[in-house]
Amino acid sequence: QPGSSFKPFVYATARTNGFTPDSIVVDAPLCIGNWCPHNFSPGYRGRIPMTTALINSLNTVAVRLAQAVGRDKIVATAKAMGVTTELRITRSLPLGTSEVSMIEMAGAYGAFASGGYKTTPQAFTQIISSTGEILYDARRDAKPRVRVLPEKVVAGMNFMMSQVPERGTGRAAKLDGIKTAGKTGTSSSFRDAWFDGFTGNYVGIVWYGNDNFTPMRRMTGGALPAMTWKRFMTYAHTGIELKPIPYVEPEKPAQVVADAKNTKPEDPDQAAALATAQAAGPSNLSVATTQWLNSLQSLMENAAPLKPVADLQPTAPVTMVAGEAAPAAPAIADPR
Question: What proportions of the chain, in percent to the nearest 5, are helix, strand and coil?
């Protein structure tokens, strides 16, 4: 179950039906028949902006929005964005109680990351024959893009979802120097914990759970899933050109926290590495790592050339006798 990571479909449907990020919604006790949903945290906030409700993952607001726009419309939105699993239209639908797969969520969240176009996940991007002919290229052979969300809907959703890592339940997923958007998700009894997020470059989905569907120890999407998402996505964004999230202002370059007057490096090489790192803008490599890589590059460039293979022949011929085993390779200890 996706839990609250399903709520963006609820909010996107609400946006399509006239709600805005600043629309006032109500967080208060609610019952539908004998079912009374509660928020994860105790208490209620009363009248609040819709953005506040999303970033704090308030269950009562999601259920009220579903009542206002219609649960069937929420299902239609999720289907249009890429969810293919049959969704059960129940009172708890807006809280993510109908099962979906990670690949479906990746495709559906891709609609936000692409600016409102349907995105189909692919296992490969190109197929090349043994002769070098490109038989398939995902970009070249892609079908015409289909818009599934209006621009104004995507703009509002991407803004609201970018606030989840900034000041909401997904703060552990916030990338350093890279604008991040997403949503946490935790199912009932802590059986599933998700963080589904995206940048201008990639969509990433992280799920934690037990194979036998037993509860975890109060695992929430804002904890280990968000932290795992951050580590994976930090690595994925190393050394690439950063793209902005559609309709969201890019992250401003991080300021140097330390006082430059008091922490000016005495080592010229370290100072040069620091200047290079700062000039490049946000980076996922520390100054020490950058300096080490520069040193490694220098060593490689100044290393003596390798001898030709012809010069590496053994001084005496080696004769192999039929049935005789070849000398065993030396054992190598694993430093781990």
Answer: 35, 10, 50
* 141 and 283 part of one domain: no
Q: What is the pTM of this model?
A: 0.74
* Gap between the Cα atoms of 99 and 87, Å rounded: 7
Question: Which residues is 147 bridged to in the sheet?
Answer: 117
CATH code, 104:
3.40.710.10
Residue type, 140: R
Least confident range of 28-32, 134-138, 257-261? 257-261
- Both 161 and 263 in one domain: the answer is no
Nearest to 201 by CA among 261, 265, 282: 282
d(CA 258, CA 38): 44
DSSP 8-state secondary structure symbol assigned to residue 163: H
List 208's β-bridge partners, or say none.
193
C-alpha 11/C-alpha 69 separation (Å) is: 10
SS3 assignment, position 302: helix
Indicate the number of domains in the chain: 2
Q: What is the pLDDT of residues 75-113, one digit of tens each?
A: 999 999 999 999 999 999 999 999 999 999 999 999 999
Spatial separation of the C-alpha atoms in residues 239 and 260, rounded to whole Å:
26
d(CA 110, CA 201): 10
Mean pLDDT of the chain, nearest integer: 82
Q: Does residue 304 lie within any of the structural domains?
A: no
Q: Are residues 231 and 261 in the same domain?
A: no
Round to whole Å and give the CA distance between 57 and 41: 10
Which residue range is the domain that position 265 belongs to? 256-299
